[in-house]
Design brief:
The chain is mostly helical. The chain has two domains: 10-88, Helix Hairpins (Orthogonal Bundle), CATH 1.10.287; 143-217, no CATH class. It is 68% helix and 0% strand. The protein contains ten helices and no strands. α1 (10-24) crosses α4, α3 runs antiparallel to α4 and α8 crosses α9. The N and C termini lie far apart (69 Å). The model has no long low-confidence stretch (mean pLDDT 91).
Length: 217
């Protein structure tokens, strides 16, 4: 009786494919981390579309496209002469971090509610980021504006900074007043547990559908 053929590792195959492409594709060879950023943004947006449109086939494909971006960045990083790391280093770092942040799964801590899970998560994160001096450290200013507003409102609440109060009565009369009004709406979304960025995306999809219908009427 012969031994069965060992099962292949699809993730390892994907990493090996990425390495071969980097070695042999002249377009891929000239790409660096910065040049990849627009593709990362695009693939992330397409994945969000697939999730929010509940398209299972697209979700599977877009997850693959986003994974390719991760493999691409890791392969570029593996060839850095000063500070190389590869996808295995990335995976090991991720595993270590997730084990630390889930002591109720991998240790003796107890968490019976989502709120208790967050306590453990935030405590582990705070220990990891002990060198940070502000609650804003690590918050990317490149986030979409509504998502960033919601993130910053959460950070503001941690240090008891109230959001701006919109001008009373009527429509905003300046960009500054418009900004305050938008921020107040995001604060309302946050207090209700809503996602302001997603809410606007869904309304924009409805508007796009209405525009297309009008064009074909």
């Amino acid at each position: 009786m012969t031994d069965a053929t060992p099962a292949t590792d699809p993730l390892r195959e994907a990493a090996d494919t990425m390495r071969a492409v980097r070695d042999r594709c002249v377009w891929t060879q000239q790409i660096d981390h910065r040049a990849l950023v627009p593709y990362l943004v695009e693939e992330s947006a397409e994945l969000i579309d697939a999730v929010e449109e509940d398209d299972r086939a697209e979700l599977r494909e877009e997850l693959g496209d986003l994974l390719w971006q991760v493999l691409f960045h890791a392969e570029i990083a593996s060839r850095d002469p000063a500070d190389p790391f590869d996808i295995d280093d990335v995976a090991r770092g991720l595993t270590d971090k997730m084990v630390r942040r889930h002591p109720h799964v991998f240790g003796d801590a107890v968490a019976n509610t989502p709120e208790e899970v967050l306590v453990h998560w935030n405590a582990a994160k705070a220990a990891e980021k002990s060198a940070r001096t502000s609650v804003l450290d690590g918050v990317s200013e490149r986030m979409p504006s509504l998502a960033l507003a919601q993130k910053l409102l959460g950070k503001a609440a941690q240090v008891d900074v109230p959001p701006p109060v919109p001008a009373a009565g009527g429509a905003p009369s300046s960009e500054a007043e418009l900004g305050d009004a938008l921020l107040a709406l995001v604060a309302s979304a946050r207090s209700n547990g809503w996602d302001a960025e997603r809410a606007l995306r869904e309304r924009l999809r409805a508007l796009s559908s209405a525009i297309r219908s009008a064009e074909t009427a």
